[in-house]
């Protein structure tokens, strides 16, 4: 007799993201949610690619479902959240706020979601959109895609929290 496998209901990306964020202490979880909401508001049509990796919890905001089409990403660990510019090495940075020295990526450390509204950060965001290989969709809502989760991860909470 042939057995039919029972289907397991899929967990929605929203619930998966919530479970990833829940690994952080409450203050950091609020910080991650507020910065994510601010970036999502800034890029409502972007595809959000989510990686719950060993070192960081990362949410990339992309023009397509390809990681190489990422405009910016939020990278969170127990110590804070960074705004990463995937092609940041090519961005004009007259205020010298971008950190990093690699061939491609640059980042800024976020103090709060309000950092995203600072004029010099807004200028970098506009420049990142302008240099994107493919444009953001003009209409519609972006989706969230869980790209990977690592079984082994660094602690998402600082000791004692």
Please explain how this structure is put together:
A hairpin with a 4-residue loop joins strand 1 and strand 2. By secondary structure, this protein is of the alpha+beta class. It has a single domain, classed as Aspartate Aminotransferase, domain 1. 24% of the residues lie in helices and 23% in strands. The chain has three helices and six strands. A six-stranded mixed beta sheet has the order 5-4-3-2-1-6. The protein starts with 12 loop residues before the first helix and ends in a 12-residue tail after the last strand.
List the helices and strands and how they pair.
Layout: H1 13-21, H2 26-42, E1 47-52, E2 57-62, E3 70-77, E4 80-85, E5 106-110, H3 119-130, E6 144-149
Parallel strand pairs: 1-6
Antiparallel strand pairs: 1-2, 2-3, 3-4, 4-5
Cα-to-Cα separation, first versus last residue: 53 Å
Radius of gyration, Cα only, in angstroms? 17 Å
Number of DSSP helices? Answer: 3
- Poorly predicted regions are none
- How would you sum up the global shape? globular
Oligomer: single chain
Helix and strand succession?
HHEEEEEHE
Query: What is the CATH architecture descriptor?
Result: Alpha-Beta Complex
- Class based on secondary structure composition and strand pairing: alpha+beta
Which CATH class is shown? Alpha Beta
Major β-sheet annotation: 6 strands, mixed
Structural domain count: 1
Return the CATH topology.
Aspartate Aminotransferase, domain 1
Strand content: 15-25%
- Average pLDDT reading: 91
Number of strands: 6
